[in-house]
Design goal:
The protein is an alpha/beta fold. The protein is 26% helix and 20% strand. The strands form two sheets. It has a five-stranded parallel β-sheet, sandwiched between helices. It has a five-stranded mixed β-sheet with strand order 6-7-10-8-9, with helices on both faces. 41% of the residues are buried. The structure holds S-adenosylmethionine.
Amino acid sequence: MMHRGKVHLVGSGPGDPELLTLKAARLIAGAGVVVFDRLVGESILDLLPAGARRMDVGKETGRHAVPQAEINRLLVGLAMDGHDVVRLKGGDPFIFGRGGEEAQALAAAGIPFEVVPGITAASGCAAASGIPLTLRGIAEGVRLVTGHRQDDGDLDLDWASLADPRCTLVVYMGVASAERMAAGLVGAGLPADTPVAIIERGTTPEQRTWVSRLGCLTADMERWAPKPPALLVIGRVVDHAVVSGWPALAEAAQ
Ligand SMILES: C[S@@+](CC[C@H](N)C(=O)[O-])C[C@H]1O[C@@H](n2cnc3c(N)ncnc32)[C@H](O)[C@@H]1O
């Protein structure tokens, strides 16, 4: 019987190559075939061996450059042909990365695989901005949600459950829907002066961070026009951001 390859679903973290896990770094350094997303930056791709076969299935904003079903078929096909594959994904493969769908497709096809977790954008961006996602007496929990609308429809979120002043909300893919997000949360009772940090390209040398409030988020976002990838951190912890040497994040920084 033909040898089947193994697929490693590898999280590459939020951008800074030093935030790779040792396991991810080892797999990247020894990769023969790599299938990667748009979120994976050059500084991480630079760690691939010169002879590695690179397959870019990167996603454009708002649509998938290569449809997910095709990516699934590609991974299965490469493994069936005997290749060991490093499937490199931004952040953590199982957090808004469609790694779950890829794992299901591999399992259904009987392909051996392993999932290598990565630092997700919420942790990376919060740490790089000095925002403690939980803080005793301020935030007892964190919720990770997507601001991406299915087929460009309305944002279908449970506003009543999200509007919890004691829980930090981290919104992935939330730039385009920030106005709807702010209206939904304030409409459900979250105070309009709740702070919002917007973090663009967190953990990279190009990181930019701004601080707004739910009540003026729409106007601020229009003014700042953050570019992808960017993340929103909503909650009182933003007012408690600490960087080495204090002070906290400046209001409407930059
Ligand atoms: C398709 S999701 C993938 C998330 C990824 N699996 C993770 O665990 O971080 C892409 C979104 O993650 C967020 N993101 C990823 N990396 C980021 C970074 N370095 N800075 C800010 N946001 C980031 C953005 O909201 C972006 O639109």
